[in-house]
Amino acid sequence: MSAAALEPEVEAFVAALARTASPATADAYRRDLGALTAFLAAEGIDDWSRLDAALLRRFLGGERLRGLAPRSLARRRAAISRFAAHLVETGRLRHNPATLVKAPRQPRHLPRPLDVDQLSRFLDTPHDDSPLARRDQAMLELFYSSGLRLAELAALDLPDLQPQRVRVLGKGGKPRQVPVGRRARQALEAWLALRGQLAGRDEPALFVGVRGGRLGHRGIQRRLAELAKARGLAEHLHPHRLRHSFASHLLESSQDLRAVQELLGHADLATTQVYTRLDWQHLAASYDAAHPRARRRGGDDHGASS
Is 95 one of the catalytic residues? Predict the structure, then answer.
């Protein structure tokens, strides 16, 4: 059976999602839901009202047997859950069947942060002062200064940049403001002085490519990889690694987990703990030092007798 009867609802959902999400996110949802529609069509199902937990378990089980990684399976389930919630809102389903399907446990793979001195030498490497070089330096400094995600940096427009901070739109369309350090401000000022040589007329993007339009995700990733090689960095460099280095270095110096959570734009503190490799010993030490009922005083070690 063809998936044609199922596809219009998916396309409408993805089109609505694309108004607030990044192009990469919208494409990922389209792929994940496309896999589900192909499965349902093979099962002879042509109406979203017949979607249930048993079907989803069979679909995800088949994807697991096909070799899909736990992270990809979890992303696929999350996409289906959000789509199913949309189907509930529009009256196509009575309840969200994805809530009855457990996500697979994911291994914790974290990028190793760059060494502070190593990163400083990399950022301080002289460049040729051309418009492209100034743009690249401003991107590097802003990534590390403010801990931005790739999508957040790529989406920046000129009005988002303020004297000592930058306004970004994070995951789920949640706005936040992040400080911009001195070195990043200097690099941005140098770039803005020459931006007009590259930017197209009426182009609002902060970072533009050689054709004058907004610099895309892949263009930014490619430039970081090329700069790492050109400047003699012995390790692969990508935006997420700079963000992780920002979080790790800031936490090491401040030990303020809540502040790092706010700067990264994490809704859940547990996400920040994993992101910064904060372990139980660090949490326990912070608890013992800060909680009024945990601080020990002389003679309290053994407690009161019963």
Answer: no
